[in-house]
Structures are given as structure tokens and as C-alpha cells.
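Design request, C-alpha cells follow.
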């Protein structure tokens, strides 16, 4: 997504593109941290409260939060482009 953000910001000067790049990097770090933590919590919930096998619960949790993380990455990409355009 970072590469596509750089392609989307093609033609912007360094000062115009910098806030969008910083926002995207911070956004991705936060999304990665939150989805990782929530994946562990969800796996723990599925194994203890729903009596699910650990491997099945892990697989469900990882797949779910990979999809959620990818969706939030796309949202962050659009927000970064809109921010750079607004500050142009």
C-alpha cells in the first residue's frame, strides 16, 4: 500500500506529500498493533469461552484480522491522499 501511496502522490512536492506519508505510516503502525492485539484476544476468547480447538480459533482469528487490517489499510491510503490534496 505504501508503494501505491507513493504512486498516488506522484507530482506532489516533498512538503505537500510529507503529511500524507507521515499519517499513513502512523496509521499502519496503529492498525498493525491493534489487529495483532485483537487477534490474540479473539483467539483466547474462542478457545476458552467457545471451547474451540486452539488451531481452529487461531486460524479464524488470523484470517479475520488480516481482512480487517487490509480494509483499514485501504481506508488509511485514501485518507492520506485526501489529506495531501487538502494541504496542497
Amino acid at each position: 500500500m505504501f508503494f501505491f501511496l507513493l504512486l498516488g502522490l506522484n507530482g506532489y512536492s516533498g512538503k505537500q506529500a510529507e503529511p500524507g506519508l507521515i499519517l499513513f505510516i502512523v496509521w499502519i503502525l496503529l492498525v498493525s498493533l491493534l489487529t495483532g492485539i485483537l487477534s490474540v484476544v479473539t483467539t483466547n476468547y474462542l478457545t476458552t469461552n467457545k471451547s474451540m480447538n486452539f488451531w481452529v480459533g487461531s486460524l479464524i482469528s488470523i484470517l479475520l484480522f488480516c481482512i480487517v487490517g487490509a480494509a483499514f489499510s485501504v481506508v488509511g491510503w485514501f485518507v492520506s491522499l485526501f489529506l495531501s490534496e487538502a494541504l496542497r
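Comment from the thread starter after seeing the answer: thanks! The radius of gyration is 17 Å.
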